[in-house]
């Protein structure tokens, strides 16, 4: 009988995801050999400090701090260190040495994807990254392959587990932001620097990747509008709850068609009010959900674990086994299709609904002044709720659809109006007309 073929795998990083990938690669070696048509042999794991005592049963002799030498011994490199450098240099070296690469590094791909995709294509290597968006949920391969024959109109969803976990705990348990972030970090959801999660940057990276694939266009990171959740107060969450809404950090990628017929792409990330009856409202904990709207297939929903070590390891290993099959059969990787090259639509032109909370003077004429200011900016009021406390009153106004540009001008005018003490908060409303 022929000896089974061996594919040598180098792992870079052994944190939340990497340690689970290594464990499963060793524990399930026979199963993966069957599925891939080759034995996937883990030849080493590059970490910062190989001597550090670890919470795992991984063999000590696999650890090294010499990632560059390790790469040279591998047919496949799995990059799970995170961050831009040295990940970018190491992936470049791996591809140049002829290795195929699997990564979960959305920060790197959102910043340097085009150069890495071009390199992979030039050398005929594979570069897979299903784990980079929405963790365990298969979303990139469905967009690239299953929906390659369709026209995507919109991709909308919750793509960051940490912020969903935090907002969910604040909404359902009344827990503080800080305590919720602490637990999300303990659960392995948060990035090494959780600023990336809470300021929306991680979701921004994912939105850039999703929009690029969905619209066959290189969507640059700086063209994805981004607001995180650090400005969302417990009061806003409670107000939303009373009004039948849930606050969620959303990523929205849309194809826009101008009156002239010209098409463009809008990609944006911000916290928004979602009606409690909307399916996104019941995405709890570290879960993610992505809706894809396409011309022929209609609406599709992808739901599941968006973060977590072992969950994300599933997506990494799925890429590895798929890529190993292709490696065994021979042939180049699947190139990126960026042929549509649609222009970017700025946030000022995007229209949505808004909820505006105002502290106003409780005196005759104040409401009329405020209504006039809305009318002057062509922003139409859908609902208005007033609560009084002494000579102060609070107004919560939900608008009909208006452009971001009109909204920004309205907020500036409200801030300088004598009828208003303070604009307390503005949140967009998504998922209802
Ligand atoms: N944790 C999660 O739920 C998810 C993570 N990801 C991505 O997966 C990647 C890994 O994430 P985690 O495992 O959570 O990170 P982590 O911070 O838990 O682990 C990173 C590992 O890389 C090692 N490392 C970092 N810099 C290094 C260097 N210069 N030299 C050698 N080793 C180095 C660290 O020592 C650590 O072992 C990141 O790109 C992250 O964005 C993607 C989806 C979900
Ligand atoms: N920090 C990320 C991890 C997965 O991508 C998140 O919280 O979603
Ligand atoms: Na995924």
How is this structure best summarized?
Helices cover 36% and strands 27% of the residues. The protein has 433 residues and is an alpha/beta fold.
Topology diagram in text:
Layout: E1 6-12, H1 16-27, H2 29-36, E2 39-46, E3 63-64, H3 67-72, E4 76-79, H4 87-96, E5 100-103, H5 106-123, E6 127-128, H6 140-146, E7 152-158, H7 161-172, H8 177-186, H9 195-198, H10 201-214, E8 224-226, H11 234-242, E9 245-257, E10 263-275, E11 287-294, E12 298-305, H12 309-329, E13 351-361, H13 366-376, E14 381-389, E15 392-399, E16 402-403, H14 404-415, E17 420-429
Parallel strand pairs: 1-2, 1-4, 2-3, 4-5, 5-6, 8-10, 10-17
Antiparallel strand pairs: 7-9, 7-11, 9-10, 11-12, 13-15, 13-16, 13-17, 14-15
Helix pairs in contact: 1-12, 4-5, 5-10, 7-8
The structure holds 1,4-dihydronicotinamide adenine dinucleotide (NAI), ligand LTNE7NMQ and sodium ion.
